[in-house]
Amino acid sequence: MSKYSFSPIGYVESCFKQKFAIPRQPGLAPNARGIIRLCKKEFGREAVDGLEKSSHIWVQFVFHETLEEGWSQRVRPPRLGGNKKIGVFATRSTHRPSPIGLSVVRLKSIDFTDGVSLHISGIDLLDGTPVLDIKPYVPYVDSVEGAENALAASAPEKLPIQFSSAASRQIESLQLAADTNLRSLIEEILSQDPRPAYQDLDEKRTYGVRLLDFELKWRYVLFEGETRVEVLALNP
Fold first, then answer.
1. % of the chain beyond a pLDDT of 70
2. pTM of the full structure
């Protein structure tokens, strides 16, 4: 079997600094922003000439933080509750024989101040992700009418979000320096319930993750039989 190797064309600067709590699909958190910085020596303005005509782009990348973890032919996707196993090629698992990801994201702008930088949003990309290729999204062929996937026929249900008074005050004070809507970004991320599918509700447990330059803290609470997310703090 032939082997192939590819060099990254650039790297992602993302609001997501850890794997935990990254949306499981692109587009689910429109306020999640990032930058693709192309390698300066190889790529200049000519490489992206005309790309500004596209509202969205395909990004091919490497799941660089799962490279050493290996893969299995059958996996447990969170969408199926984390208990049922199906074939790896029937899922979008990050643990793959060739650890390559594919995401469609919004192209907000292209900046040439210091090399070539693509400002993107609606991302599901970890900070430092190596990018292998970029292609324009072409609606008349990339959006397939009548396409189906019985394993993921609709978007997952979202959990309601509530903010503690302390978290609301922190967000209000930090918002002026942020380039995205912090409250909306937090709601978009946590409403998708980033917990592992096998974890039961534990109201005493506090979760945390680094988001942008902050430490986001939250917990799950049961209110009138409904699971809710309570945002506790957004600490610098």
1. 100
2. 0.94
